[in-house]
Design goal:
This protein is of the alpha/beta class. The protein folds into two domains: 131 residues, no CATH class; 224 residues, Rossmann fold. 43% of the residues lie in helices and 13% in strands. Strand 6, helix 13 and strand 7 form a beta-alpha-beta unit. Helix 6 runs antiparallel to helix 14 and helix 8 packs antiparallel against helix 17. Belongs to the GRAS family. Keywords: Transcription, Transcription regulation. Pfam families: GRAS.
Length: 498
């Protein structure tokens, strides 16, 4: 799910956008590798090469038009694309959302509009059931039923509708992509699709950071554990395995500055990732300079060490651990990207934990989504993804107005790419591999760690934070870990180890 926004070190400018209208087929994005689907103009995901040339069909206020602005395929592919669409969806499926006035006679237009109105009156519960039925048909290799359901679902989902309608648009895109991934080799011949400008992506990440407490919950709970463990230390080294924009460390530097007896000397080692590098528009020196400026303002001795390699390739030599420094290691929303034994014999997930344990850290913090999609088969993985992100989209709906100009972009570029990756990809191409905290406990235990209980102060501080949000958010402490949920669904878990 998560990419790190930059906190309020500098002002943000939010680009204007007209995405608030009711739209149907939209792209999803993944920075690691690009793809496009017949429903998309500029998506990305690392799993498969899917297409989207020709025409992107977008419906606004029940009228339709053609949008070729985001084409990812040259004109040479047009005939093949039409052939592929026919194979996937039947020769007439796309006609359902074409401009009725221009493409059909008036009688057929009235019939199709009547069908559209009927489908839009279907309850959200029926939409969930139809999404599940489509996924079940695919899991049973009933492709005729799956394609039939996809035609129906295309008229039921909307990126500007109710939470389940918006999520349904991206779930459907994932289903189409999963179906296509075993199909024509045409998908392997596509060009890369454009991403949003880096400043735009950063603004979308910042909006998500502000409207939902998930990031702040993770950062505050991890920082609380680090501050508690380091309260008597004079030299502190923090290794952040996905530093993003450096947002997490703003409040910790401020807290250390106010420590009785004076602040410690802080050294932060930040490990980069491609999405954050693109969003910030440059390397880790940008993060280091911002944090150094902040530390100087609060009179905290500070040093920054950048590591611009993939997390799975990090070695102890990259981390520069020094004698006499108290070491803290931070894993916030990053370990689920590490392939485990089900993907590779190298098992970077467990190897990384063993390497960190060998460094003798005083505290290790873990923040992860509370979801079970790592080794699950396609159908249970789909249901888990729908259940998890349905709660998340509902929580966004409470805070971010339905007509907010940037809401579609926030969901599309910060959440939808993960949804599609989980559903559509298999093997090493599926990089979103979440596990429940119980499984993480097992992995940390096998690596030699023992639990580090979170301070009661952390719990009370987060409860104060949640007063600024909907009362449907739920905070629970169980077995030394904190869980943040939406109503009855746990969404994020945080704990610490030593």
């Amino acid at each position: 799910m998560y990419t790190h926004p930059r906190q309020e070190i500098e002002d943000y400018s939010l680009p204007a956008n007209s995405a608030g209208k009711r739209s149907r087929y939209v792209p999803v994005h993944n920075s690691r590798k690009r793809y496009c689907t017949p429903e998309s103009s500029s998506p990305d995901s690392p799993c498969y090469d899917v297409l989207s040339n020709a025409t992107v069909l977008v419906s606004h206020n029940n009228s339709a038009y053609e949008d070729t602005s985001g084409s990812c395929v040259t004109d040479d592919f047009n005939d093949k694309i039409k052939e592929l669409e026919t194979v996937m969806m039947g020769p007439d499926s796309l006609d359902l959302v074409l401009d009725y006035n221009d493409s059909f006679d008036s009688t057929l237009s009235q019939e199709t509009n009547s069908w559209r109105s009927t489908l839009e009156a279907v309850s959200r519960r029926d939409l969930r059931a139809d999404l599940v039925s489509c996924a079940k048909a695919m899991s049973e290799n009933d492709l005729m039923m799956a394609r039939s359901m996809m035609e129906k679902l295309r008229l039921m989902v909307s990126v500007s509708g109710e939470p389940i309608e918006r999520l349904g648009a991206y779930l459907l895109e994932g289903l189409v992509a999963q179906l296509a991934s075993s199909g024509s080799s045409i998908y392997k011949s596509l060009n890369q699709c454009p991403e949003p400008a880096s400043t735009e992506l950063l603004s979308y990440m910042h909006i998500l950071y502000e409207v939902c407490p998930y990031f702040k919950f993770g950062y505050m709970s991890a920082n609380g554990a680090i501050a508690e463990a380091m309260k008597e230390e004079n030299r502190v080294h923090i290794i952040d395995f996905q530093i993003g924009q450096g947002s997490q460390w703003v409040t910790l530097i401020q807290a250390f500055a106010a420590r009785p007896g004076g602040p410690p000397r802080i050294r932060i080692t930040g490990i980069d990732d491609t999405t954050s590098a693109y969003a910030r528009g440059g390397g880790l020196s940008i993060v280091g300079n911002r944090l150094a400026k902040l530390a100087k303002q609060f009179k905290v001795p500070f040093e920054f060490n950048s590591v611009s390699v993939s997390v799975s390739e990090v070695t102890p030599k990259n981390l520069g651990v020094r004698p006499g420094e108290a070491l803290a290691v931070n894993f916030a929303f990053v370990l689920h990207h590490m392939p485990d034994e089900s993907v590779s014999t190298e098992n970077h997930r467990d190897r990384l934990l063993r390497m960190v344990k060998s460094l003798s850290p005083k505290v290790v913090t873990l923040v992860e989504q509370e979801s079970n999609t790592n080794t699950a088969a396609f159908f249970p993985r789909f249901k888990e993804t729908m259940d998890y992100y349905d709660a998340m989209f509902e929580s966004i709906d409470v805070t971010l107005p339905r007509n907010h100009k940037q809401r579609i972009n926030v969901e599309q570029h910060c959440l939808a790419r993960d949804v599609v990756n989980i559903i559509a990809c298999e093997g090493a191409d599926r990089v979103e591999r979440h596990e429940l905290l119980g499984k993480w406990r097992s992995r940390f235990g096998m690596a030699g760690f023992t639990p580090y209980p979170l301070s009661p102060l952390v719990n009370s501080t987060i409860r104060s934070l949640l007063r600024n949000y909907s009362d449907k958010y739920r905070l629970e402490e169980r077995d030394g870990a904190l869980y943040l949920g939406w109503m009855q669904r746990d969404l994020v878990a945080s704990c610490a180890w030593k």
